[in-house]
TrEMBL record:
Organism: Streptomyces filamentosus
Transmembrane intervals: 30-49, 55-78
Statement: the UniProt record of this protein carries the keyword Membrane: yes
Keyword annotations: Membrane, Transmembrane, Transmembrane helix
Listed name of the protein: PH domain-containing protein
Domain YdbS-like PH, first and last residues per copy: 79-155
Lineage: Bacteria, Bacillati, Actinomycetota, Actinomycetes, Kitasatosporales
Statement: the UniProt record of this protein carries the keyword Protein biosynthesis: no
């Protein structure tokens, strides 16, 4: 039923959470990013005696901050990221302080891709990318079980094939 003038559409939060393995995937990403900064400082600190303190101190601070972030942020993200696919649209909600809701109507979907980077493969995860004509870019559902992602890509392909295009 089309929405009449003055009617407000209220969306409920998407129902689905990501796969629990996404927490480990995000943690490894944080730890690798932290190591990218800590290791060069630590190596230089070990090699350059006069600057040892000034190199090892920031290395230690970055290591502690990176480890804390690797523990806390992935849990936080897991609690806030949600997704859902209905017959009408793909819904994704991310963020806590700056919440972002992305909605891709089925009639506007152009392509559906499944991506599995090396770390995602290690954790048996995948990302489903739904591309529309939106200037905001594609809608991504990250941290899905790789088999579920393949099923969703197939489901989305079938639904969009059977959905008439939007004439607007």
């Amino acid at each position: 039923m089309p929405q009449g003038e003055g009617e407000t559409v209220r969306l409920r939060p998407p129902r689905n959470t990501l796969n629990e393995r996404a927490v480990g995937w995000w943690r490894v990403q944080w730890l690798l990013l932290t190591a990218l900064h800590v290791v060069p400082l630590a190596v230089l600190g070990a090699l350059i005696a006069p600057a040892r303190f000034w190199l090892l101190l920031p290395a230690a601070v970055l290591a502690v901050a990176g480890a804390a972030a690797a523990v806390l942020f992935p849990l936080w993200w897991f609690r806030t990221h949600r997704w859902e696919i209905t017959e009408d649209a793909v819904y994704v909600r991310t963020g806590f302080f700056w919440q972002e809701w992305r909605i891709a109507p089925m009639s506007r979907i152009q392509t559906v891709d499944t991506v599995r980077g090396p770390l995602e493969q290690l954790f048996r995860l995948a990302t489903v990318t739904v591309t529309t004509a939106s200037a905001k870019g594609a809608v991504r559902i990250q941290g899905l079980d790789h088999e579920l992602a393949a099923d969703l890509a197939g489901q989305l392909t079938r639904i969009t094939r059977d959905t008439p295009g939007d004439a607007t």
